[in-house]
Amino acid sequence: MSDRLERLLAAAVPEVCPAAVALIAAHGTVTAAAAVGELVRYADAEPATGSDAGPGAPGTLAADRPPAHRDSVFDLASVSKLCTTTVVLSLTEEGLLDLDEPVRSWLPGADPRITLRRLLTHTAGLTPTRRIDLELPQAGPDERMAAMVTTPVTGPVGGPYLYSDVGMVMAGRIAELAASAPLDVLVRARITDVLDLSGTGYRPVGGGGRVERVAATEFKPERPGPGCVRGEVHDETAHALGGVAGHAGLFAPADDLLAFGEALRVGGGAMLSPSSVAEMTRDQGAEGAAFRHGLGVRIGDPGIVGPLSGAYGHSGFTGTSLVVDPARGLTVVLLTNAVHPVRGRPGMRELRCAVAAEALRHVA
């Protein structure tokens, strides 16, 4: 069935995304895998001309266009929130955190109504985003983080649902304070080392990784260096915070993300207890969303699960998604760089749902 999956991705490349890698696992066995397209297709965001540009090409074609492979590394964007949530839950298992304790015990001055549960369900009344890089252009990551975690409540606390990167930044910072360790160290110690995910981490190039494996994202002329962003986080806020933040920043290849999803599917494996996974994936009663919400995960999100009703997971702005369907024994990974070289290209929702629909064919 890999041929069907490959044709599905090929129909979306390069119009929807320049590169796409997808994996489908049924009951722990990879039943389909495909990698299509180019990790770097464009050199900039200037509309291309010429016979090889193609209709509506969003940028000048790069001279060197390396192909995508199954082990290529992609910026996960908001799929990173699943790992932040996992770290928080692992700390609650050890009694270092309490989901229902006011976060002001860790963040003095925080609204007393804010709890970790409300941060992880996006019901803390916090603004969706905060461009701390524009607010504090000359500040360093530590000063910017100090400002981020003092973001005031501007909406109703307790609901309705209001998706907030700011809330997940706070959750990541609270985990750091509770464990006396940086978030990247916590993710490594509690997730990637435990599951042997050697290709997953923050700041892949700055950490000694190989840039040639990494998919390029958006062309950002304000960043130093020529060409499109590659090997550093696309998200502006995560970048301003030094590349490590609770809402974004992780990079991974498809097999690593699949292994993470599989660990959740079977009840946490060596990473979390079954009771923590059950709480993570339980409908927490957040109102006002187009899906149900667990702790850090979306349940039945129509934008990613397609016909896999009841499945849970998350999507990422760069064009990534992880879907876990315990009832059917499925785990589905889709990694793309749909923001390369510009954001706002149509068709990503349709591609995610088409891959999920293909996964349904793999149910025995």
Written description of the protein model:
It is built from eleven helices and ten strands. It has helices at 2-12, 80-93, 116-120, 132-135, 141-148, 165-179, 183-195, 236-240, 254-265, 274-280, 348-360, and strands at residues 19-26, 29-37, 73-75, 201-202, 250-253, 292-293, 298-299, 312-316, 320-325, 330-336. The chain has a seven-stranded antiparallel sheet, sandwiched between helices. Helix 2 packs across helix 7 (183-195). The protein is globular and about 55 Å long.
* SSE string: HEEEHHHHHHEHEHHEEEEEH
Terminal CA distance: 13 Å
Derived from helix and strand composition plus strand pairing, the structural class reads alpha+beta
Q: Spans with pLDDT under 50 lasting ≥5 residues?
A: none
Helix content: 25-40%
Q: Give the tally of β-strands.
A: 10
Question: Largest sheet, order of strands side by side?
Answer: 2-1-10-9-8-7-6
Shape call: globular
Rg (C-alpha, Å): 20 Å
> With helices defined by DSSP (H or I, 4 residues minimum), what is the helix count?
11
Main sheet specs = 7 strands, antiparallel
Provide mean pLDDT, rounded.
95
In percent, how much strand structure appears in the residues? 5-15%
